[in-house]
């Protein structure tokens, strides 16, 4: 399959592009800066080509989608984005890409969204058909993009709602520790290893049906923050401002992708990643 991957210089997209290429797919990566994408060819990874384009410039996307069988859309503006910037990139930019894909006759469109679209759920496991009430701009913009994509009958859309993604040398946990320092130590966090984000993506790319389907991607255990912090050698959170965690206090149910597509986490628990040296 020839696949366009966006966000290929980011944490998820860079690792995903390489894994898809290693599985034998021909990968084209949409990038704004060709110099930043040089690492995509590191380690002898072949089957990756680069295409310059920008989600905010609709006219730059036609050549990127030309001749591909599928789009895997990982690009997003998260940390540091104003509400206006989040919607411009994550919502309007996604629509630009989807319109270009339809015009080019692309068969499948995989959108990596976020479990934050559900909004705070007080520790209940959120299922894909639950109502969504995000409380901050980033997930609100992703939810708007989801709804736009799922309303396009001419595009075979699959949405992956991701939790906190880690592993493969990604410093994501270390980077998040300062932000979560004041959260409650007992707060639990849904996780997925980069290997399982790739597995889920491959499954929705290769499955013939069902179309226009949303899947939560999550491993088998949601550890508390004491465990998460300890995985990178950090002391427990101090719990001084637990209310700050409200926007992120969301746990995901992963039953649908297991039932529909036979997904089983390659790295079921954070402890397994630590034991296998896959952090």
Mean pLDDT: 94
How many distinct domains? 1
| CATH homologous superfamily classification | NAD(P)-binding Rossmann-like Domain
End-to-end CA span: 30 Å
| Helix proportion range | 25-40%
What is the N-to-C succession of helices and strands? EHEEHEHEEHEEHEHEHEHH
Q: Which structural category fits the helices and strands? A: alpha/beta
CATH top level is: Alpha Beta
Tell me the total number of β-strands.
Answer: 11
Question: Could you say which overall geometry the principal axes of the C-alpha atoms support?
Answer: globular
Sheet with most strands: 7 strands, parallel
What does this molecule look like?
With 279 residues, the protein is α/β, with parallel strands linked by helices. It is built from 9 helices and 11 strands. The chain has a single domain, classed as NAD(P)-binding Rossmann-like Domain (Rossmann fold, 3-Layer(aba) Sandwich), CATH 3.40.50. Helix content is 33%, strand content 17%. The strands form 3 sheets. A 7-stranded parallel beta sheet has the order 3-2-1-4-5-7-10, with helices on both faces. The protein has a two-stranded parallel ribbon with strand order 6-11. A two-stranded parallel sheet has the order 8-9. Helix 1 packs across helix 6 (194-206) and helix 3 packs parallel to helix 4.
Keyphrases for this structure?
single chain, about 280 residues, alpha/beta, Rossmann fold, 7-stranded parallel β-sheet, about 15% strand
């Amino acid at each position: 399959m020839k696949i366009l991957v966006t966000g290929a210089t980011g944490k998820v997209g860079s690792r995903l592009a390489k894994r898809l290429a290693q599985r034998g797919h021909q990968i084209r990566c949409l990038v704004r800066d060709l110099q930043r994408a040089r690492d995509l060819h590191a380690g002898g990874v072949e089957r990756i080509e680069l295409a310059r384009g920008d989600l905010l410039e609709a006219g730059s996307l036609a050549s990127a989608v030309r001749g591909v069988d599928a789009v895997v859309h990982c690009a997003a503006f998260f940390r540091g984005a104003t509400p206006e910037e989040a919607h411009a990139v994550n919502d309007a930019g996604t629509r630009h890409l989807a319109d270009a894909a339809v015009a080019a006759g692309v068969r499948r469109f995989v959108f990596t969204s976020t479990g934050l679209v559900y909004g705070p759920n007080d520790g209940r496991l959120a299922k894909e058909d639950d109502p969504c009430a995000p409380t901050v701009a980033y997930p609100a913009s992703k939810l708007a993009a989801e709804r736009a994509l799922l309303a396009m009958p001419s595009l075979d859309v699959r949405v992956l709602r991701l939790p906190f993604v880690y592993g493969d040398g990604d410093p994501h946990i270390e980077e998040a520790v300062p932000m979560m320092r004041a959260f409650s130590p007992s707060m639990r966090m849904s996780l997925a290893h980069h290997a399982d984000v790739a597995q889920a993506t491959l499954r929705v790319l290769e499955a013939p049906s069902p179309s226009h389907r949303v899947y939560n991607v999550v491993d088998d255990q949601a550890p508390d923050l004491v465990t998460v912090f300890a995985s990178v050698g950090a002391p427990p959170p101090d719990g001084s401002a637990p209310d700050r965690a409200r926007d992120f206090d969301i746990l995901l149910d992963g039953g649908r992708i297991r039932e529909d597509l036979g997904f089983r986490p390659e790295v079921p628990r954070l402890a397994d990643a630590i034991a296998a040296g896959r952090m």
